Queue: 2 jobs
Job 1
Amino acid sequence: SAVISQKPSRDICQRGTSLTIQCQVDSQVTMMFWYRQQPGQSLTLIATANQGSEATYESGFVIDKFPISRPNLTFSTLTVSNMSPEDSSIYLCSLGGRLTDTQYFGPGTRLTVL
Amino acid sequence: AQKVTQAQTEISVVEKEDVTLDCVYETRDTTYYLFWYKQPPSGELVFLIRRNSFDEQNEISGRYSWNFQKSTSSFNFTITASQVVDSAVYFCALIRPQGGSEKLVFGKGTKLTVNP
């Protein structure tokens, strides 16, 4: 299985600021996904990030709030913009995307917004 | 529409007890995959098992076993002789095919607490 790392592992941020989360994979993958897990909740898909194309966002998530970059096949970033306390969550990146793939997850970024 | 239901929100057992976590899914697809993940308090999501829709054989891995029954659309997970380290939130998930991109649909999770 691929090794996935995320930076930062956790952060405490002030309202109104932005945070960029990095996801690095040790092998080339076509599709990367970004999920959000609000406190005590299940995981919700934010967007799908393909290299060389614009990210595809799920209902309820917009590019202005969660811009995503995918500059190459091993790296992606998710920015949480103009943060509010409601953005306090664990953000996870994952790989996979085909029916035959196993979706592995990064260790997550635990974000607290004050 | 695809949906995964984990009716048990929280379960508490005493060490060495057996415990079964229920998962019921809905899908119109004939080909799909089901997953179980473990999320310990540290927050990372640990992959446990993947099962495709054409393989109904039960699987055993150490103290873990999974029972997949298409007739009842269930994919239940049993931990035998539970240990304190098994305390975590467990998620059942289903792959949802969508326009060439297959995405995971998660249940709400079951929080398992194993007491010494």
Note: The CA atoms of residues 19 and 70 of chain B lie 21 Å apart.
Job 2
Amino acid sequence: GAVVSQHPSRVICKSGTSVKIECRSLDFQATTMFWYRQFPKKSLMLMATSNEGSKATYEQGVEKDKFLINHASLTLSTLTVTSAHPEDSSFYICSANDGAGVGNEQFFGPGTRLTVL
Amino acid sequence: KQEVTQIPAALSVPEGENLVLNCSFTDSAIYNLQWFRQDPGKGLTSLLLIQSSQREQTSGRLNASLDKSSGRSTLYIAASQPGDSATYLCAVNSNFNKFYFGSGTKLNVKP
């Protein structure tokens, strides 16, 4: 199956700093990628849809100025957590599918664990 | 908005047992449903994908069924092994590839 990578896998930062997380589709092009976050012992919550060449679409309750998404190419989407605070500590996962349209299998990255001190 | 529920939340069985994990969803207008496995602190491993037009999919000891009209899916694991211990998540694709996840079933298979 298609491969999605994330970098970094783990990051620890001080409160107030910004952190950038990269999501790459390694062997396919993805016009759309998705960002999820997972709280400890909870399920994944969709944060936003990242669209190549246009603005991201955020789910209700997700602060777009807090979580900046840039989909600069067909293989790369970035999530920047701005002015991070301890409550932003979480596991962030991206996904993409390798086909046009809907109904295709989603491939998920390995996740990035963010810890804000 | 799609709501996905998984029952049970946790399950502990002795090795060798067959078991069933349940997933239900509120909106039957789905494109597909995917079952994942997540090990502690790790990402997601895709197990099975069922398209909305399909009734079931099989991969090795795993069998997933889908009853779209009733909003239900089951994951059947045959002859469970300790290596199957993990959290199992079901996710429903009901809005242009946006996936809505259940809260998962944490499975422990005892040797």
Note: The interface with chain A takes residues 31-32, 34, 36, 41-44, 46, 49, 51-52, 89, 91, 93, 96-104 of chain B (CB under 8 Å).
